[in-house]
Every structure is written in C-alpha cells, then in structure tokens.
Write a structure and sequence with these properties.
The protein has two helices and no strands. The protein has helices at 4-9, 22-49.
C-alpha cells in the first residue's frame, strides 16, 4: 500500500530532463517583454514631450443643441439641493448580527 508521501513524491509529469526547451524559451520571453516595455516607454515619453505646456481654456464653448448641455454645472456658484445623506456624528454605527 502506498503512503501519502509516496503518492505526493511520485513524478506524474513524465521525464522532465528531455527537451530542455523551457529555460531558453522563458529567457527569450522575458527579454522580449523587456524590449517591448522599453520601446513603449520611449514612445510615450516622445509623445508627452510633443504636448503643449498648457492647453487653451475650453469654457464658453458649449453647444446648446447637445443633450447634456441642460445639466447644471455644480461649480458655477449657484446653490443647489444636496442629496447626500448626512454622515454619523463622530461615531460609527456597528451592527451585531
């Protein structure tokens, strides 16, 4: 009868010594991913350098025919209704369940 240690120690994956391709293939994939990362970083840096220091202000360019133009701007200084629920007064409520 086999013990639990013998069952766990048994090699059920075949002969792992033949082929020998996993190590070189893993190294190739790591180097490929590293090269792709370096190229992506260089590309993003060159794109960021081409951006202007400041963008022009876009306020006042609202098209009144758009559907979302009727939505009130919460930062325009007018006071609106606060629909948020009030928080607890310094104490957290715990439920025992």
């Amino acid at each position: 009868m086999l013990t639990a240690a013998q069952v766990l120690a048994e090699n059920n994956f075949g002969d792992t010594r033949t082929g020998g391709l996993a190590g070189p293939m893993g190294l190739f994939l790591i180097l490929l991913l590293a090269a792709a990362t370096v190229l992506l970083i260089r590309n993003m840096n060159s794109r960021l350098r081409r951006l202007p220091d400041r963008f022009p202000q876009q306020a006042g360019r609202v098209d009144p025919t758009r559907a979302d133009a009727a939505v009130a701007d919460p930062t325009d200084g007018t006071e609106g209704h606060d629909s948020s629920t009030p928080g607890p007064n310094g104490h957290q409520q715990h439920r025992n369940g």
